[in-house]
Design goal:
This protein folds into three domains: 84 residues, 3-Layer(aba) Sandwich (Rossmann fold); 62 residues, ATP-grasp fold, A domain (Dna Ligase, domain 1), CATH 3.30.1490; 190 residues, 2-Layer Sandwich (D-amino Acid Aminotransferase, Chain A, domain 1), CATH 3.30.470.20. It is an alpha+beta fold. It is globular, with a radius of gyration of 21 Å. Helix 1 packs across helix 11 and helix 5 packs across helix 6. 32% of the residues lie in helices and 27% in strands. It starts with 8 loop residues before the first strand and ends in a 6-residue tail after the last helix.
């Protein structure tokens, strides 16, 4: 029987989690056979990709030799290796410039500030004097952030109310590079997902609102309940940032809507949790448009198909409930779309998501909440 797999794959996907899994699925739906590099055969992405290869120290360059284009599901990459591979002719998208800005918050802040984008006042933390000086200018509370993203379960930000708390965080996080930012009076947290081709052609999805509780995204509502002026400003700003970083693929720009206006919070150079609803609520999902963009194919339309959509993340709790064991009950909630990632339950781990769409935000939110509660074997609160 002849081998049906290509000698050179049009797309290589590096990642182990649900983002890589959904990019892989979107590529297959377009008739594109991707190659996946994961960490382990039990990873969420690898479970959906039987032909996956697995990472070892020298594997990435060998993996890339079999792919026309390589993309990543996260920003935790060795930039030195990526730059070397690009210089050797490997096509990597979104590209080094966007990846560097996404993975290094201090670098990201400097670039955006220098280009005139509105970011929180910030400073790099090297010692106690930096905390004292910064708080002397901007007052308490302040926010301390890790410069580089850790794993999904790693905490990366701390709101501190006084010098003692700030110094305690610095001591506990002594192995990590840190920045300090002025606290923002947040009204809403917003996200704009942009798909951009290498030549600059781009499309934005409608602005979504992220509901975060204790630093964990619990719920996404789209469209965000904001005025048209703010929505237009957010989308225009996100598109300008994508252009500035020469992003190739999907990039997500997170904003704080404060009492004084929009402030850029963070950038993700990949499909984003806030765009999961586009699987059901857009003609072209963020995952399909990411595949299209990195392969320099025409982008699909991004408008909303419904007046309201709500996505609720299925997150592991203290009790080891496996949502797959309660799929029957969740599927009985008509109108709810269930996505499970094949992960083993553990506290604060994203195990899946539920999306509901329709004409009324409150009604679709109730549908999504009922399905998520069913998956986690609890009553709707």
């Amino acid at each position: 029987m002849p081998n049906s797999l290509p000698a050179i794959y049009p797309l290589g996907i590096v990642g182990s989690g649900q983002i890589a899994r959904m990019i892989h699925t979107a590529a297959l739906q377009l008739g594109i056979t991707p190659r996946l590099m994961a960490e382990d055969s039990g990873d969420s992405a690898a479970l959906a990709a039987p032909e996956a290869s697995f990472r070892h120290p020298d594997a990435l360059s060998s993996f890339a030799e079999l792919c026309e284009v390589v993309t990543f599901e996260h920003e935790r990459v060795d930039l030195g290796m990526i730059e070397y591979m690009e210089e050797a002719g490997t096509i990597i998208r979104p590209g080094t410039k966007a990846l560097r800005a996404a993975m290094d918050k201090a670098h990201q802040r400097r670039i955006l500030l220098n280009r005139g984008f509105n970011v929180p006042p910030f400073a790099e933390l090297w010692g106690p004097d930096d905390v004292i000086d910064f708080a002397g200018m901007f007052g308490w509370p302040t926010v301390i952030k890790s410069v580089r993203s850790g794993g999904q379960a790693d905490r990366g930000a701390w709101i501190v109310d006084n010098q003692s708390d700030a110094l305690r965080v610095m001591a506990e996080q002594f192995e990590r590079e840190l920045i300090i930012e002025a606290f923002q009076p947040i009204v809403k947290e917003l996200v704009v997902v942009v798909a951009r081709r290498p030549g600059g052609n781009a499309r934005c999805y409608p602005v979504a609102e992220a509901v975060n509780i204790e630093g964990v995204c619990k719920e996404i509502r789209s469209p965000a309940a904001i005025g048209s002026r703010v929505a237009t400003e957010a989308m225009e700003t996100a598109r300008k940032i994508a252009d500035e970083l020469d992003a190739q693929g999907v990039i997500a720009v997170e904003f704080f809507l404060t009492t004084a206006g929009l402030v850029v919070n963070e950038i993700a150079a990949r499909p984003h949790n806030a765009g999961h609803h586009t699987i059901e609520n857009a003609p072209t999902s963020q995952f399909e448009n990411h595949v299209r963009a990195v392969l320099d194919l025409p982008l699909g339309p991004t408008h909303a198909l419904n007046k309201a959509s709500v996505t609720i993340n299925v997150i592991g709790g203290i009790d080891p409930v496996n949502p797959a064991d309660h799929l029957h009950e969740a599927l009985a909630v008509e109108g709810a779309h269930i996505h499970l990632y094949g992960k083993r339950p553990r506290p604060n781990r994203k195990l899946g998501h539920v999306t509901a769409v329709g004409d009324d935000m409150d009604q679709v939110r109730e549908l999504a909440r009922r399905a998520e509660a069913a998956l986690m074997n609890r009553r709707v609160s």
